[in-house]
Amino acid sequence: MAHVVAALDQPSSYKDSQARGRDRKLQTELLSKSTTLYVGNLSFYTTEEQIYELFSRCTSPEEGGGIKRIIMGLDRNTRTPCGFCFVEYYTHAEALACLRYVGGTKLDERIIRCDLDTGYTEGRQFGRGKSGGQVRDEHRADYDPGRGGWGAQAQRAEIERRREIEERYADAQEGPGAVAGGGEDWEETKGATTEPSRKRERSPDDEGEGRGEARTKLEETHDA
Amino acid sequence: MSYHRRRNNHRGYEDDFRREVDETPEQKLKNTIIKMGEVDPVQEVPRLAKQLREEPALNAPVIAEGFRIAVTEQPFKIPYYAALLRELYDPPADAEESTSSSPTLGRQILEDFWKGFQASLDKLVWREMRLSIQLFAHLTIAEVITTQTMFELLRSFAAVLDEFGVSHGRAKKAALCASEGLMISGSIIKENPSINVIDIMSTIQAYIESTIDAKKLVQPTVALHSDSVTVESADELLDAALSALQILNASDFAQTSDSFPQPYINAPRPITAPFELPSVLVPPEVIELDSLSTDSGEDALVKKEEWPEFYIRIFDNDVSPDPTTPVGYAVRTGLLDLIDIFEVNRKECARLLLEFPKWTLPGTFKPRPGAPPQEPVSGKDWQLESTLIETILSTLFLLPESSHKATYYIALITELCKLSPSTIGPAVGKSIRKLYNLLADGLDVEIALRFVEWFSIHMSNFNFQWVWKEWMPDLELSLQHPRRTFMRRAVDFEIRLSYYDRIIKTLPEPMQNPDLKLVPAQAPGPDYEYDDPANAYHDAAQTVLNLIRGRAKADDVIVHLQGLKNSLETTDSDTNIDSVIRSIAVQSLLHIGSRSFSHFLNAIERYLPLLRNLAGGGISSGGSPNFEARKDILDAVIAFWKYTKHMIVIVCDKLMQYQIVDPTDVVAWTFLHGRQYVSTQDSSSLEAYQWLLLKGALDKANGRVVIARKRVTALRKEEDDNAARAKAKDQAAMEVDAETKPDVPIIESAALTTALKAFATLTREQKSALSRALDGFVDCLVSQTKPNPRAGEVILEKSWHNRVNWDEKEWLTWETWGWYRHFCRLYSPYLRNYAQTLGTVSFAKVGPSGDPAVELFRKIWNDATGQEA
């Protein structure tokens, strides 16, 4: 069906412009299987639960899918949300469905944007801008109340709500295992039914084992 | 790179596709065909015909490919492609005698197009087949194709309906091919005295009559007491097609020209001999062979089946066309095709939908505001926007499932609103009101839930502006009346997408009063039971909380809990201390993880050994895994998140993912603890929130089987490939030294053994979850040991007509019936597989036969699992 119109779930062209040569090939391959979305233009006050609510509309649990995890993008210095996140699904099809149905619609009264992402790697939850936030915000000229602008009219309750959300991630850690994996596919040995006493603790940094190296190279794909 | 440039780049991403890079001349030619008619199709047809004829290196297969794409992806242009082919079918007017001996361009294209049709037929690509048949039907009227061979083609499709054991999906698609072809070409076919078009119609009719049981299960409005298969506010797709055909036939297809554009109609009869369509046979469906079966021998391959399609009517026949009439059917099916084909790009889809009138006969729709006025055509003059919204919503509301995800249809309506807010907006508003009214008249519970989903997401995209005031009087209705549950859920869903204070402000002041039970008294949030210093276990819980907060090792927490248990048991002998310990541990973990979804995941992952220990019945006298322990864990979840119900669904999902609890545990617990949601309920019931928990658990169980199956298939393929490679190598080796080697038997790899074992375990789990769900519904509605008198009452006609006086319990029982019905039809492919065992086990627990509730319960089960009553 790509003859008459372009599909909305085609990978965005802008990322191509950043990777070169072999990297680009690798990136295309990663994207063609990717289960992770980069979600941008979020309000700084949008919560993970709001994100979950909207993005769960694209899940296919009956196919073994679902939302694996959400990684909120944080300002490197202040540890406050800075307007982007990663949503990771269990299947590629779910990520594509978001590009078709969710990208360009509103969440928390802002039009959000979705892009396929090569996958979360350690450290990517933090903004890379000079000030600690997202690079794109440093070039923002317009006033944007959802992204740090307070506005004199903000009510006391609203200020309180915002402060609560801002403080939410004060405990955000860095380093391996700082970000939860979200749970893997079913395994015979994991259940409580078998050998409850000898359970191996699943170390959070199991995630991405063996793939980490390939991904690090591609870390720079987003101006997170 | 600057922000501004980046932005441009992003916008460029959509534009990129329109800029055809490195177009080959062939590609260019194809595109010219595909783009035909975007300005004025009538004028463009002769122009394009001329251009194609003048093409220097003419390549009929390339042009035919252009036609194939154009016809199957832009069905609204089909009549014009027929006109173009008609034009090309004759030699050019100025052709010399000598050239006319070779086949004309049109004939070459048609021959090639037919090859493409044959290929779609071989692969059973139904939409391509159906749309190609539409083209053939137009060409029959244009006298390019013979009536006899066209009729034979339609007959081959009708013959599918007579196949033994034909699936509904196959029968439906074949019937649509036959009936749409006949609708378009009937007038000329009927002129052929050797043809009897009634044959096709009676075949369709006979088929429809065989689908009565299935139809009952997917009607959008429910009358549990009624056996009627027609519903007032909806039309079934095949019924509509047949009805349109009957109307056409009664007038010898005089209305065809009033229903389908025929831009070729004034062309003279072609001088070239008409094309004879080769005869075809619709090939049988490919049966996927899969040697995997469950341990008890059931076929484990689940195939989604299709159901009769009831499309809800929202507007009157003078606002949107009646799809049971020829022109109404043509409009409806044209829109359905657009919505389906352009699913890949909802923005383009919205644009094309708004341009749809351009492709219909003049006067079909009212002119757009600002357009030159036109003489209204009597019996037409419909409102485009209402028709569009009605068609999209009725597709969204198909049961048991819409063909694409609900979000697609919701996002499509959003795009329409963005493109034309002043005209689409009112149609959306009217649709909401109409559906809201239907809630009181038996709108199916699943549709009601999708309605809430649409409403909340739509409002989230349009500043949450809704005139709530008009529903104010309905707050007098019973708390569980479908209109009140709709309002309550709408507010709840809106809060989830936004936040409490924002949504409360969108309601009129009187409706904000928490006593009216529309809005919660406070913003949703966690409730850590042991926070209260007055709580008997406050101090104990604090010690656990401090350990977890200090990131103590899981083993240390387990040791601490053990000590706590021992000391509590000495002071408090009446309470189930095991349960208390589990509740403290789980609530404390949830408390630590309550800041956000990822905080929750972090807390859980850090303490998986602790949770597994608890779930396995550790820190208790037994030490063996037991349901009690898991029930306690789930109870702690509900206690902690009781004010934020969707968190319960999220937490349950992850507890299953981490294999702390099994889907069967969640199913059982959902039914057992239903009454915790609605305090007034004395017998078990199931309402929407519980349904979502139940569905989450069943989908998890089913999804795991899907993954396990894929894994086995992949490993088997890998081994087959390896074996083939080894064999090839052996053979190569043998050619060198003639010594024969004995065949080495292929040994199943350890990975495959593990995968097969997992598959066996998971299908068992799947069966057990489904079985437990059926048991749950038995308990709610037809239990022998604790009968629910209301279950028999609410299904009586007299009672239904008196529903204005129903109380909460009656409405809840009615809703439970609705979810039972939905459970049966949604999971029907799985239930069918296990029907024998599941039915035997659960039906042993039902009340006496002859009881109307028991009879209905069985009938729904039998209809869904395809068993004779």
UniProtKB/TrEMBL annotation, chain A:
<dbReference type="InterPro" id="IPR000504">
    <property type="entry name" value="RRM_dom"/>
</dbReference>
<dbReference type="InterPro" id="IPR027157">
    <property type="entry name" value="NCBP2"/>
</dbReference>
<dbReference type="GO" id="GO:0000339">
    <property type="term" value="F:RNA cap binding"/>
</dbReference>
<feature type="compositionally biased region" description="Basic and acidic residues">
    <location>
        <begin position="196"/>
        <end position="224"/>
    </location>
</feature>
<keyword id="KW-0539">Nucleus</keyword>
<feature type="domain" description="RRM">
    <location>
        <begin position="35"/>
        <end position="119"/>
    </location>
</feature>
<dbReference type="InterPro" id="IPR034148">
    <property type="entry name" value="NCBP2_RRM"/>
</dbReference>
<dbReference type="InterPro" id="IPR012677">
    <property type="entry name" value="Nucleotide-bd_a/b_plait_sf"/>
</dbReference>
<dbReference type="Pfam" id="PF00076">
    <property type="entry name" value="RRM_1"/>
</dbReference>
<keyword id="KW-0507">mRNA processing</keyword>
<feature type="compositionally biased region" description="Basic and acidic residues">
    <location>
        <begin position="157"/>
        <end position="171"/>
    </location>
</feature>
<feature type="region of interest" description="Disordered">
    <location>
        <begin position="123"/>
        <end position="224"/>
    </location>
</feature>
<comment type="similarity">
    <text>Belongs to the RRM NCBP2 family.</text>
</comment>
<protein>
    <recommendedName>
        <fullName>Nuclear cap-binding protein subunit 2</fullName>
    </recommendedName>
</protein>
<dbReference type="GO" id="GO:0005846">
    <property type="term" value="C:nuclear cap binding complex"/>
</dbReference>
<feature type="region of interest" description="Disordered">
    <location>
        <begin position="1"/>
        <end position="21"/>
    </location>
</feature>
<feature type="compositionally biased region" description="Basic and acidic residues">
    <location>
        <begin position="135"/>
        <end position="145"/>
    </location>
</feature>
<dbReference type="GO" id="GO:0045292">
    <property type="term" value="P:mRNA cis splicing, via spliceosome"/>
</dbReference>
<dbReference type="InterPro" id="IPR035979">
    <property type="entry name" value="RBD_domain_sf"/>
</dbReference>
<dbReference type="GO" id="GO:0005634">
    <property type="term" value="C:nucleus"/>
</dbReference>
<keyword id="KW-0508">mRNA splicing</keyword>
<keyword id="KW-0694">RNA-binding</keyword>
UniProtKB/TrEMBL annotation, chain B:
<dbReference type="InterPro" id="IPR016024">
    <property type="entry name" value="ARM-type_fold"/>
</dbReference>
<feature type="domain" description="MIF4G-like type 2">
    <location>
        <begin position="528"/>
        <end position="831"/>
    </location>
</feature>
<dbReference type="InterPro" id="IPR015174">
    <property type="entry name" value="MIF4G-like_typ-2"/>
</dbReference>
<dbReference type="GO" id="GO:0005846">
    <property type="term" value="C:nuclear cap binding complex"/>
</dbReference>
<dbReference type="InterPro" id="IPR015172">
    <property type="entry name" value="MIF4G-like_typ-1"/>
</dbReference>
<dbReference type="Pfam" id="PF09088">
    <property type="entry name" value="MIF4G_like"/>
</dbReference>
<dbReference type="Pfam" id="PF09090">
    <property type="entry name" value="MIF4G_like_2"/>
</dbReference>
<feature type="compositionally biased region" description="Basic and acidic residues">
    <location>
        <begin position="11"/>
        <end position="24"/>
    </location>
</feature>
<dbReference type="GO" id="GO:0006406">
    <property type="term" value="P:mRNA export from nucleus"/>
</dbReference>
<feature type="compositionally biased region" description="Basic residues">
    <location>
        <begin position="1"/>
        <end position="10"/>
    </location>
</feature>
<feature type="region of interest" description="Disordered">
    <location>
        <begin position="1"/>
        <end position="24"/>
    </location>
</feature>
<dbReference type="GO" id="GO:0005634">
    <property type="term" value="C:nucleus"/>
</dbReference>
<dbReference type="InterPro" id="IPR027159">
    <property type="entry name" value="CBP80"/>
</dbReference>
<feature type="domain" description="MIF4G-like type 1">
    <location>
        <begin position="321"/>
        <end position="509"/>
    </location>
</feature>
<dbReference type="GO" id="GO:0003729">
    <property type="term" value="F:mRNA binding"/>
</dbReference>
<protein>
    <submittedName>
        <fullName>Uncharacterized protein</fullName>
    </submittedName>
</protein>
<dbReference type="GO" id="GO:0000339">
    <property type="term" value="F:RNA cap binding"/>
</dbReference>
<dbReference type="GO" id="GO:0000184">
    <property type="term" value="P:nuclear-transcribed mRNA catabolic process, nonsense-mediated decay"/>
</dbReference>
